[in-house]
Write a structure and sequence with these properties.
- The complex is a heterodimer of chains A (305) and B (549).
- Chain A is mostly helical and 305 residues long.
- Chain A is built from 8 helices and 2 strands.
- In chain A, strand 1 (154-155) and strand 2 form a beta hairpin.
- In chain A, 36% of the residues are buried.
- Helix content of chain B is 65%, strand content 1%.
- Chain B has helices spanning 28-32, 37-65, 76-95, 98-112, 120-142, 156-160, 165-192, 205-237, 250-267, 270-284, 291-305, 320-348, 357-380, 382-388, 392-422, 428-455, 469-499, and strands at 424-425, 501-502.
- With 549 residues, chain B is mostly helical.
- Chain B has 17 helices and 2 strands.
- Classes of the chains: A mainly alpha (305), B mainly alpha (549).
- Chains A and B meet through helix 1 and helix 7 of A and helix 7 and helix 8 of B.
C-alpha cells in the first residue's frame, strides 16, 4: 500500500449514522448534491430537447427559403384568433406553473395542488383548441398525404391548380360574388387581391429569381401545382404535433405530481420534481412561442396581396 | 526499457471478497430491476454481444458472397439486406453503446469515487430502451429485412424500398434515447458526483473522453431521432418532407442524417481513445505524456466533429464553396487525433513496458487507428474523395477506425478491466493469441479493400469484375481469421469466470480509484468515500506523495 497515494478515508462532513432526509437517495452525500444534480440533469435534458426540435426548425428554415410565397399563402389558412388564444392560454399556464413551484418551495401543499390543477386545466384547453384546429384542417382537406391534392384545395380567395381542369369553386365564387366577401380570416383590400382566377403559382411566378419557381419553367402558371403548400402543412403537423405530444406527456407528469403533492411528498426541503417539471413546462411553452409566429404570423400578408 | 513478458505480481494468494456486487443477490429480479451501474453494465455487455454476433454473421454472409465475382450465394436483394443488417446492428447496436454503456457505465462512477451514476433509475431505463429498440430492429430484420443501407437515404427509404423501414427506423429512434440518457447521466455525474479532491484536472482521461462523448450524445442524437421520425412519418403518411416529387429535398435528409452520424463516429472512437489512455500508462508504468493535451483534444474532437458533416455530401450536389469549407474543417479534426497518438507514443518512451494482452491491443490500436485516420485525410481532400466516393476505399477507411480502433479498444478494455469486473484473470496465452489474430486477420481483411477501392470497385454490389477477385479472396480469408479471433475470447473469458486465477484488487499495479477497491467491487463501490490527494497516473516512486491517512 506504500505506493498508493490515494487515501481511502471518510469525506469531511460526512458522518455515518446521521439522519438523512427520507427523500435522499443512497448514492448522494447530501440533499444539496442531490438537488443540484437533478436540476443540472434537467437542464442537460432541455438542451437535448432543443436539438430535437432544432431539426424541425432547420427543415422549416430551409423550406421557407425555398418556397417563400407558398409558405405565406399556406400560413394564411391558419386561424390567428385560435393561435393567439392558445398562446395566451399557454403563457397563463406557465404563470400558474411558476406559482406552483413557488408554493412547493414554501411548502404550501394546498396552494401547490391548486396551481397544479390550474396548469392542467389550461393545458387541457390548449390541447382542446389544437383539436379544433386540426379538425378544421381536416374539413378543409389540408392534410398532407391524405390523397387530396393540396394543389386544388381552397385557400380563399385563391385556388391552386394541380392540373389543367375546370376552375375550382373559389374561382367561380370570385367571378360571381366579388372578392372582399371571401376574405374570411384576412383583411385584404380589393387592390391587393389578385385578379379573379389567378393561381398561387402565378403570383409566385411574378417574383423571378425566387427559389419557389422551379416549376415556372414548364407549362402555364395555371397548370402548375404548388408543392411548397404540402411541405408547409407537413411541417405544420410535424411541429405542432411534436409540441402537442410534449404537452400530453406533460399532462401525465402533472397528474403524477398532483398525486405526490396530495400525499404530502413535497415539502420546503424537497421540491425538486416540481421545480424540474416547471422547467420542462416552460420549455414546451417557449417552443410554442416560436411556433406561433413562424407558422401563423410570418408572411401572412403574402396570402392576400 | 524492460520488455519482459507478463509479470502479474502475486505476493500472496489473493482471495475473493465474500460479498460483492455479483453475489449480493442472485435472483433474476435483482438483475432485471437493478439500479447498480455495475450490473447494468453487465446487462449491456450481454446485449451488445448478441447484437455483435448478429452483425458479425451478416458480415460473414457478405464476405462469403464476395469470394467469387458472380453473384452466386446471395441474390442482389438479399445481399442488400445482409449488408444493411450488418451496418445497422454494428453501428447503432454495437459500436455506439459498446464502450460507454459497458465499461463507461461500470467504471465512470468508480473512477470519480462515487457510489453510482447520478440517476441510477434513468440508467436502467436506458438499458430497457436499448433492448426495446434492438428488438424492434431485429424484428424488422427478420420479418422482411431492410435494404436501404444503415444510412436510410431518401427518397429510396421513404418511397421506393419495399422493406421494413418503419420498424427498424423506430428501433433506432428508441435506442437513440438510450444513448441520450446515458450521455446525460455521464455529464451530470462528472459535474456533480466527483469525490472530494477529484478536480477536473485529476480526472482519468477515460472520464474526459466519456465526457466529450456524452456531449455528442446530447447534442447529436436528438437530431437523428427527429430525422428518423420524419422518415417514418413520410413513409407511413406520405407527407412530403424529403420527397422530391412533393418538392422536398433529399439532400436535406443527408444533411440532417450526417449532422448526427458524423459526430456519431466520434461517439464510436472517443471512448476507445479513453481506454487506450488508461492502458498505455498502466503497462508503461509511467505518467501519461501531456495530460492536458490529451484531455482537451477529446473536447476538440467533439467540437470539430460537429462542423464536418457535409464531407459525406461532396458528390451530392452541395455548393463547391461549402465543400471547400467542410473539406478544410475535416482536415482540422486530424489535429486533436494526432495529438493523442503522439502523446501515447511519447508515453511509451523510457517506460517499463509490459506486453500483456491489453497492451498488445493498445499497440494494435495505435497502428490501425493511425492508418484509419490518415486515410481519412485522403477522403477529406475534395479531388480524391470524388474519385473514391462509394468505393471500397471508404469501406476500408471506416473499418480501420471502427474495427481497428473501437473494437480493438473494446477488447483491450474488456481484458484490462476483466479482473475488476469478474474478480478473476483470463488465461494469458489464448488471450495474446487472440490479440495477434485480431491484428493479422483485420489487416488481411481490410488492407486489400483500400487497393480495391482505389482501383474502382464500388461498395454495396454483390457481383464484381473478375480482376478484383484476388483481393476479395484475400479479404474473405482475413475475415475468417478475424471471426476466429472474435470467437476465441468468448471461450476463454467464460472459462475464466470459474477457473481463472483470483485477481485481487489490483493485478496490474495500475493507478486509479477503481483499483483501490476489491475485485469484484462491493455494491457501493467503496467502503468509504475516497479523498483524492494526487494527480492522475502518478506512476513511479517520485511522483505522487504518499499520504496515508
Amino acid at each position: 500500500m506504500a505506493n498508493r497515494p490515494i487515501v481511502l478515508d471518510e469525506a469531511p462532513g460526512h458522518e455515518h449514522g446521521h439522519s438523512h432526509h427520507p427523500m435522499q437517495q443512497h448514492h448522494f452525500d447530501t440533499m444539496e448534491q442531490q438537488y443540484s444534480s437533478s436540476s443540472f440533469g434537467m437542464w442537460v435534458f432541455l438542451i437535448q430537447e432543443i436539438m430535437f426540435f432544432g431539426g424541425l426548425f432547420v427543415a422549416y428554415l430551409v423550406y421557407r427559403h425555398t418556397y417563400y410565397n407558398a409558405f405565406g399563402e399556406a400560413s394564411s389558412t391558419l386561424s390567428i384568433k385560435l393561435g393567439a388564444f392558445n398562446t395566451v392560454v399557454l403563457i397563463m399556464s406557465s404563470l400558474t406553473m411558476a406559482l406552483a413551484v413557488n408554493a412547493a418551495q414554501l411548502g404550501r401543499r394546498f396552494l401547490l395542488m391548486l396551481f397544479l390543477v390550474a396548469t392542467m386545466v389550461l393545458g387541457t384547453i390548449f390541447l382542446g383548441v389544437k383539436v379544433i384546429e386540426y379538425h378544421d384542417k381536416y374539413t378543409e382537406a389540408h392534410i398532407p398525404g391524405s390523397g387530396a391534392d393540396l394543389g386544388i384545395i381552397k385557400i380563399q380567395p385563391f385556388c391552386f391548380h394541380a392540373t389543367a381542369g375546370p376552375p375550382c369553386a373559389a374561382d367561380e365564387e370570385e367571378h360571381s360574388a366579388g372578392k372582399a366577401e371571401n376574405h374570411s380570416m384576412q383583411q385584404a383590400t380589393p387592390e391587393t387581391a389578385p385578379a379573379p382566377g389567378e393561381t398561387l403559382t402565378a403570383s409566385a411566378g411574378q417574383q423571378p429569381g425566387e427559389h419557389g419557381d422551379i416549376q415556372a419553367a414548364a407549362g402555364s402558371p395555371r397548370e402548375r401545382s404548388m408543392p411548397g403548400a404540402e411541405i408547409y402543412f407537413s411541417l405544420y403537423f410535424a411541429m405542432t404535433g411534436m409540441h402537442a405530444l410534449h404537452m400530453i406527456i406533460g399532462m401525465g407528469l402533472l397528474l403524477w405530481l398532483l398525486w405526490n403533492a396530495y400525499r404530502g411528498l413535497y415539502t420546503a426541503e424537497y421540491f425538486t420534481p416540481v421545480e424540474n417539471f416547471g422547467l420542462y413546462w416552460h420549455f414546451v411553452d417557449i417552443i410554442w412561442i416560436y411556433l406561433f409566429p413562424l407558422l401563423y404570423l410570418i408572411n401572412r400578408h403574402l396570402g392576400h396581396h | 526499457m524492460s520488455t519482459v513478458t507478463s509479470h502479474i505480481i502475486h505476493k500472496e494468494a489473493e482471495v475473493m471478497p465474500e460479498v460483492h456486487y455479483l453475489n449480493a443477490d442472485h435472483s433474476l429480479k435483482s438483475w432485471l430491476l437493478t439500479i447498480d451501474h455495475k450490473r447494468i453494465a453487465i446487462l449491456y455487455m450481454l446485449t451488445i454481444t448478441v447484437f455483435f454476433f448478429v452483425g458479425g454473421a451478416m458480415a460473414t454472409l457478405v464476405r462469403l458472397e464476395l469470394l467469387t465475382p458472380a453473384g452466386d450465394l446471395l441474390q442482389s436483394d438479399s445481399y442488400n439486406k445482409a449488408f444493411t443488417l450488418h451496418g445497422v446492428m454494428m453501428v447503432f447496436f454495437f459500436l455506439v453503446p459498446s464502450i460507454p454503456a459497458t465499461l463507461g457505465n461500470f467504471l465512470l462512477p468508480m473512477m470519480l469515487g462515487c457510489k453510482d451514476l447520478a440517476f441510477p433509475r434513468i440508467n436502467l431505463l436506458s438499458w430497457y430502451l436499448f433492448v426495446i429498440g434492438g428488438t424492434f430492429a431485429l424484428y424488422g430484420m427478420i420479418t422482411g429485412g431492410l435494404d436501404t443501407g444503415w444510412t436510410f437515404y431518401t427518397p429510396f427509404s421513404t418511397t421506393y424500398s419495399n422493406t421494413n423501414v418503419i420498424t427498424v427506423g423506430l428501433g433506432i429512434f428508441v435506442a437513440g434515447f438510450a444513448s441520450i440518457l446515458t450521455g446525460l447521466n455521464f455529464i451530470v455525474t462528472t459535474h456533480r458526483m466527483r469525490a472530494p479532491g477529484m478536480t477536473w484536472m485529476r480526472m482519468p482521461l477515460f472520464v474526459w473522453s466519456h465526457y466529450a462523448t456524452s456531449l455528442i450524445m446530447i447534442l447529436g442524437t436528438p437530431v437523428i431521432a427527429i430525422t428518423m421520425v420524419l422518415v417514418v412519418l413520410e413513409r407511413a403518411l406520405h407527407i412530403g418532407i424529403f420527397d422530391p416529387k412533393l418538392g422536398g429535398d433529399p439532400v436535406l435528409f443527408q444533411h440532417m442524417f450526417w449532422f448526427y452520424s458524423h459526430p456519431a463516429v466520434y461517439i464510436m472512437i472517443l471512448p476507445g481513445m479513453g481506454v487506450i489512455s488508461e492502458v498505455i500508462p498502466a503497462f508503461s508504468h509511467k505518467r501519461i505524456f501531456g495530460y492536458k493535451a490529451v484531455a482537451f483534444s477529446s473536447l476538440a474532437i467533439a467540437v470539430f466533429g460537429f462542423l464536418v458533416w457535409a464531407h459525406h455530401l461532396f458528390v451530392a450536389g452541395i455548393s463547391i464553396y461549402a465543400a471547400l469549407v467542410f473539406s478544410f474543417v475535416s482536415f482540422l479534426v486530424a489535429i486533436p487525433s494526432a495529438i493523442k497518438v503522439f502523446n501515447w507514443s511519447a508515453t511509451l518512451y523510457k517506460g517499463s513496458i509490459r506486453f500483456d494482452t491489453p497492451m498488445l491491443y493498445a499497440f494494435a490500436f495505435l497502428g490501425l487507428f493511425t492508418i484509419g485516420g490518415l486515410t481519412g485525410l485522403f477522403l477529406a481532400a475534395l479531388g480524391i474523395d470524388v474519385h473514391v466516393t462509394d468505393t471500397y476505399f471508404v469501406v476500408a477507411h471506416f473499418h480501420y477506425v471502427m474495427v481497428g480502433g473501437m473494437v480493438v479498444a473494446y477488447l483491450c478494455g474488456i481484458h484490462f478491466w476483466w479482473p475488476k469486473i469478474t474478480g478473476r484473470i483470463y488465461p494469458e496465452f489464448p488471450a495474446r493469441l487472440a490479440a495477434i489474430l485480431v491484428f493479422v486477420g483485420f489487416n488481411l481483411t481490410f488492407f486489400p479493400q483500400f487497393i480495391l477501392g482505389y482501383l474502382g470497385m464500388p461498395r454495396r454490389y454483390h457481383a464484381y469484375p473478375e480482376e478484383f477477385q484476388v483481393f476479395n479472396v484475400l479479404s474473405s480469408a482475413g475475415a475468417s481469421v478475424l471471426a476466429v479471433a472474435f470467437l476465441l475470447p468468448m471461450i476463454y473469458l467464460i472459462w475464466s469466470l470459474k477457473y481463472g486465477k483470483v485477481a485481487g484488487p489490483n493485478p496490474w499495479q495500475a493507478y486509479g480509484l477503481e483499483w483501490e477497491t476489491s475485485s469484484p467491487p462491493p455494491t457501493h463501490n467503496f467502503e468509504h468515500t475516497p479523498v483524492v490527494t494526487t494527480e492522475a497516473y502518478s506512476y513511479g516512486p517520485k511522483e505522487g506523495e504518499v499520504t496515508l491517512g
